[in-house]
Structures are given as structure tokens and as C-alpha cells.
């Protein structure tokens, strides 16, 4: 039988009050969204509670929602961001999932009792703050909605008091959507094993969609929340915990109590929504504008991959407004429909007008009947820009970035060694995920 290393021990009276929102020193070490094509960047700001200043819906559809959210840095003097950085946001787990797990473990009446987390083996690192409480653990520090591995199901089965319970656990474990709480309900499980088994909550990194030159004390992010039903069971949907949390937070800010659900079937809003603050840190990125403002830019994005390019164009518009010379920009933006998910369309049109021909926007609508399909293809003038020293930026899903890279390399194949040279010289930068 697998032995759980950490143990939970109630402390009464507590040695010191548990802080429900402390992070262990390594909490910011593994953001869930990374940019593999960029050099490793290991610069992080402190984790702070940032007030949500504004949240507005960019579009909504049966399968997906997208919001623009702005967070206030005015009372966080030590926080500084640069255009192109990431904001790493810690989510709060859905309230119904937390309560379900507390009930399954028999901890409902002791949810806020202070706990010490101790290791059975000397020197064994503890992945969560201590002292804490069961409620804080499952609400903030552990991914209670994480998929359950076969190894975990097997270990839980070994805790079972009878072969019948073990068989029931094994059967339930075949359901890829089964939560750990559902498995725990099927048989007695030590809370210490649950703490050891659940992964720690990791932040979700979002490309910052504002410009530090335009709004130094305000950060904007663009958040997409996928609500598409599962093919295997159309009555269910898998929603990202962080995106759903931010979406609910934004709706609570606007007073829309009808949109407070976080996760499928959630009957209650998550904690911390009423405070309208999120815990986050700034993650440095090499996805930056060139040092020379006159360097031309070729920007290619799809969906929420538009986020950093909003910041880029706003910054260049500000530079031009104060009398600086800026280089020409071409923005290729892929989306499904001009009337549905063409993010920041009016704002971009206004910026393009201000830039007076220095910004060309080329939309690629994949599902429009009134527009021909215009998948991203390099035009002659784009190749000329790249040949003359333009920087190229790609932001979006990895599959999109791979397809675009193939098109670019094919278009530039007559320029021997261009792609390798551009990447090495930081003239070709990618911010990709998935």
C-alpha cells in the first residue's frame, strides 16, 4: 500500500492563525502557460492581490465567451510590467467542488480548524503552506478538479475496506470526468493521502493586452472561456478553472448574479469574488517590441492570441502621438466570424486611423458566409518587410503557430538561412500554448 507522506494534524489552539492565502516559496515556479519558442525567462514579481477595475464581455456564443479585464496596480508600487509580459493568475476552486470534497472526507464541521502539515520522512518537502485549514487547502492550494490518474485510482482501491468497494472504485475510475471527491465517496480515504495526491494549484498565464507606455498602473488581460459540450456526453462541459473564475468575477463586478457559475453545474459562486481581487504576479517575457521604434512589425495571431498585439499597437500609436517615427505594421488576425469573435475590432480600426496607413489589419474569417475564407498567407509586401529587417511575432495555439511557420519558411525559402537567423537574432518571436 502506498504510504502518504504528509499528515494532517489539528492544532487547537493554533500556534498562529492560518493565513488562507499564503503561497509557498515555489508557488510561482511553474506557470501553466508558457512560450516554448522563447528563451527561458525566470523573472517574477511578488504575488499580490490585484483589484479588478473593469470587466467587459468582448463576445459570447453557445460554446465560448471572451472578456476583457483590467486590474489596478495603483496601490502596488513594487509591481512594474512591460508591454508583452504575462500576468499569472491563481484561481479559486469552484465552491461546489470544495464542499463536495470536504463532505466526502468528513471534514465539513472542521473545515476551518487550523491544521499543521507535517512530513513523516525527515527532510521531505511540503508543497503547501502550514498551518492552514482544510477549507483553505481545497479552495486555494490544491487542484480539486484535476483529472484522476489510474495510479491514484489503484491506490485508493487499496485503501478500500472490501473487494466490493475496490471494484466500485475501479469502475468509477474509468470515467475520465470523475472527480477525486466522487472516488473518495466510494470508500474511506485518509485526508493525508488526498493532500499528497492532489497537484498544487498552478497559475494560468495570460498575455498582457495593455501597453505599459499607455497605462503603466493598469494591466489588461483577454480571457477566453470554453463552454463547448463534450462529444461523449453533450450534457457536460469541461471549463478551465481560472477562466471560469475570472468570468464569474467579472460578472459579479457588473452585478450580474445570473452568471456566477464557475464550472459545470456550480450552484454557488467561488470565494473571493465579493472582494473583486485576484492573486497574481507578473511573469517577464521576451515577447517584446524592438528597441528601434522604426522597425517594421509583422504580427500574426488567432483568438485570444490577439492580446499582446493590442498592447503593441496601442504603444506604437502613443509613440506616434508624441512625435516619434514608427515603423510600418501588418496584423494578421484569425477568427471565426466578423460579427462574433473579431476581438477589439472597433478599437483597432480607430488605432489604424490614428496611425494613418502605418497599421494594416488583415482579418482571416474561417466561418463567414459574407467574406471569403482568408487564411493567413504571406503577401509579397510582407516578404519584403521581413527581408528588410521586420520583426515577426506569432501568438496563439501551437498548431496555428506551426502552420504559420511553415507558410513563412516556404515564402522565404529563397532567402537562404533567413528563418534560422531570424530566430537566433530575436527577429522571430512566438508566444504559444496548447
Task: Break the fold down into its secondary structure elements and pairings.
Blueprint: E1 6-10, E2 48-60, E3 64-72, E4 86-90, H1 95-104, E5 114-119, E6 132-133, H2 134-141, H3 150-159, H4 163-172, H5 180-185, H6 191-197, E7 204-207, E8 218-226, H7 241-253, E9 277-283, E10 297-302, H8 307-321, E11 329-335, H9 345-355, E12 359-365, H10 380-387, E13 391-397, H11 398-411, H12 418-424, E14 428-433
Parallel strand pairs: 10-11, 10-13, 11-12, 13-14
Antiparallel strand pairs: 1-5, 2-3, 2-9, 3-8, 4-7, 4-9, 5-6
Cofactor: FAD
GO cellular component, one term: cytosol
Biased composition (Low complexity): 24-40
Describe this structure in words.
- The chain has three domains: 48-92 and 202-283, Elongation Factor Tu (Ef-tu), domain 3 (Beta Barrel); 94-197, NADPH-cytochrome p450 Reductase, Chain A, domain 3, CATH 1.20.990; 297-433, Nucleotide-binding domain of ferredoxin-NADP reductase (FNR) module (Rossmann fold, 3-Layer(aba) Sandwich), CATH 3.40.50.
- It is built from twelve helices and 14 strands.
- Residues 1-21, 23-42, 257-274 and 370-377 have low confidence and may be disordered.
- The strands form three sheets. A six-stranded antiparallel beta sheet has the order 7-4-9-2-3-8, with helices on one face. It has a five-stranded parallel beta sheet with strand order 12-11-10-13-14, with helices on both faces. A three-stranded antiparallel beta sheet has the order 1-5-6.
- Helix content is 27%, strand content 21%.
- By secondary structure, the protein is α/β, with parallel strands linked by helices.
- α1 packs across α2, α3 runs antiparallel to α4 (163-172) and α8 runs parallel beside α9.
Amino acid at each position: 500500500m502506498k504510504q502518504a507522506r504528509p499528515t494532517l494534524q489539528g492544532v487547537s489552539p493554533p500556534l498562529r492563525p492560518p493565513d488562507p492565502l499564503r503561497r509557498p516559496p515555489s508557488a510561482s515556479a511553474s506557470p501553466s502557460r508558457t512560450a516554448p519558442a522563447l528563451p527561458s525567462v525566470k523573472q517574477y514579481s511578488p504575488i499580490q492581490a490585484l483589484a479588478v477595475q473593469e470587466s467587459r464581455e468582448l463576445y459570447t456564443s453557445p460554446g465560448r465567451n471572451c472578456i476583457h479585464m483590467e486590474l489596478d496596480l495603483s496601490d502596488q508600487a513594487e509591481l512594474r510590467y512591460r508591454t508583452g509580459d504575462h500576468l499569472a493568475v491563481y484561481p479559486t476552486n469552484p465552491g461546489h467542488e470544495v464542499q463536495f470534497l470536504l463532505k466526502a472526507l468528513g471534514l465539513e464541521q472542521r473545515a476551518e480548524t487550523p491544521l499543521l502539515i507535517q512530513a513523516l520522512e525527515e527532510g521531505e518537502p511540503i508543497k503547501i503552506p502550514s498551518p492552514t485549514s482544510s477549507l483553505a487547502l481545497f479552495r486555494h492550494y490544491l487542484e480539486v478538479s484535476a483529472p484522476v490518474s489510474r495510479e491514484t485510482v489503484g491506490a485508493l482501491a487499496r485503501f478500500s475496506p472490501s473487494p466490493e468497494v475496490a471494484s466500485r472504485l475501479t469502475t468509477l475510475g474509468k470515467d475520465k470526468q470523475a472527480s477525486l471527491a466522487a472516488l473518495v465517496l466510494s470508500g474511506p480515504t485518509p485526508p493525508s493521502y488526498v493532500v499528497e495526491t492532489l497537484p498544487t494549484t498552478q497559475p494560468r498565464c495570460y498575455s498582457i493586452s495593455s501597453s505599459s507606455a499607455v497605462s503603466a498602473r493598469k494591466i489588461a488581460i483577454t480571457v477566453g472561456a470554453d463552454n463547448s459540450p463534450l462529444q461523449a456526453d453533450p450534457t457536460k462541459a469541461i471549463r478551465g478553472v481560472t477562466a471560469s473564475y475570472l468570468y464569474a468575477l467579472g460578472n459579479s463586478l457588473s452585478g450580474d448574479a445570473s452568471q456566477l457559475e464557475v464550472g459545470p453545474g456550480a450552484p454557488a459562486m467561488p470565494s473571493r469574488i465579493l472582494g473583486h481581487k485576484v492573486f497574481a504576479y507578473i511573469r517577464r517575457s521576451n515577447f517584446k517590441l524592438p528597441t528601434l521604434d522604426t522597425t517594421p512589425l509583422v504580427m500574426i495571431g488567432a483568438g485570444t492570441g490577439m492580446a499582446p498585439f493590442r498592447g503593441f499597437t496601442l504603444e506604437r500609436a502613443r509613440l506616434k502621438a508624441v512625435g516619434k517615427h514608427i515603423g510600418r505594421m501588418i496584423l494578421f488576425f484569425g477568427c471565426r466570424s466578423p460579427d462574433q469573435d473579431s476581438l477589439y475590432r472597433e478599437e483597432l480600426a480607430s488605432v489604424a486611423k490614428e496611425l494613418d496607413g502605418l497599421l494594416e489589419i488583415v482579418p482571416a474569417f474561417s466561418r463567414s458566409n459574407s467574406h471569403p475564407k482568408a487564411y493567413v498567407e504571406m503577401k509579397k509586401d510582407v516578404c519584403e518587410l521581413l527581408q528588410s529587417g521586420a520583426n515577426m511575432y506569432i501568438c496563439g495555439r501551437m498548431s496555428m503557430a506551426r502552420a504559420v511557420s511553415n507558410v513563412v519558411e516556404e515564402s522565404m525559402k529563397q532567402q537562404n538561412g533567413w528563418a534560422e537567423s531570424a530566430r537566433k537574432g530575436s527577429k522571430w518571436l512566438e508566444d504559444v500554448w496548447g
